[in-house]
Amino acid sequence: MFIDQVKIYVRAGDGGDGMVAFRREKFVPNGGPAGGDGGNGGDVVFEVDEGLRTLIDFRYQRRFKAERGEHGMSKSMHGRGADDLIIKVPQGTVVSDIDTGEVIADLVAHGQQAVIAKAGRGGRGNKRFATSANPAPELSENGEPGQERSIQLELKVLADVGLVGFPSVGKSTLLSVVSAARPKIAAYHFTTIVPNLGMVDTGDGRSFVMADLPGLIEGASQGVGLGHQFLRHIERTRVIVHVIDMSASEGRDPYEDYLAINSELEQYNLRLMERPQIIVANKMDVEGADEQLEIFKGKLKEEVPIFPISAVTKSGLNPLLLTIADKLETTAEFPLDELLEKEEEETVLYKYQAEAPDFEITRDPDGVYVLSGEKLERLFAMTNFERDASIQRFSRQLRAMGVDDALRKRGAKDGETVRLFDFEFEFID
What are the start and end residues of every segment in region (Disordered) (predicted)? Predict the structure, then answer.
């Protein structure tokens, strides 16, 4: 089964908690703090595996969670860091954040890796908080929570050559006779509903990957028919082979078909028109195809190579394959070249991004002040509320962030309730 789009949930591992401990050894009076740090959690990492062709594995498992770090131990021993969770994906996988729409990674090369969710760092043990004023602190940190994300995986087939054209023009038949691929072939439209890949050997030591892509119809760029499901895959091909039914067996005009398909490609992505294109005049074994080919050549204004073939009788295939191989040798690989261009543009252009506030204050209908904010929530999660020293440190951190002053400006009075998550605090002025 070919799966090219899926939504999944990933969560990186939390950091291990730091420990409060003291040295207890014979002949070592007042040994001092000896609580170790927690280990870092594991990242969620996507890695390209060229042996994969679809996202079908994600149909059966849609939630991925990395391991958390080990907690700190006594005798100043640090907890072990967790291993990263490596998830294999096929070449051409685009990873996007569902909530923000941001493209996190575009994975195109075998072995390429991208960190999709960052792990939390381990909390510090009490040994880290020892000072000359407080040589024996009973203070430690919880591990930082790992990043969690709902993401969308979108597969864009990586092939050297893409076959485009209206339904039933012979794309699947052509792929089946020039490669070992066995796509479904039948005498009705949209027989091909998923891309089929085949390795083509030209016979002179060269080879390339050819993709038989689902048939296009007018309006595909707006999602009509298979629409974007097809056009998503043509983005990554280096050479476009336009297959046309030159026999006009279905009553359509071959030249009008040619214009209609190119119009859809242009409307979807203007850059597609920059790709080298080769025209394949198929079904030349059908009566009347020669006359239609002459008419087509008379109307064609662009200088595009035309190869008359018959996929059924296998005539005219060798010159076509050799020309495609020659064209690939002079065409830059895609999309690696464009990705490099994007990286260069990003290093030149400055993009202003407003910093998110450390915290926000709202008020519920019951009159309770509610605190929120990513930095504040992370600070809360890393505080060990089982120890008074940690609670006092948390209060000092809130004061340093300006939470007390902000509450006063919002009208908070002494004794009123402040809520953070499910916990409620009393505001003391």
Answer: 125-145
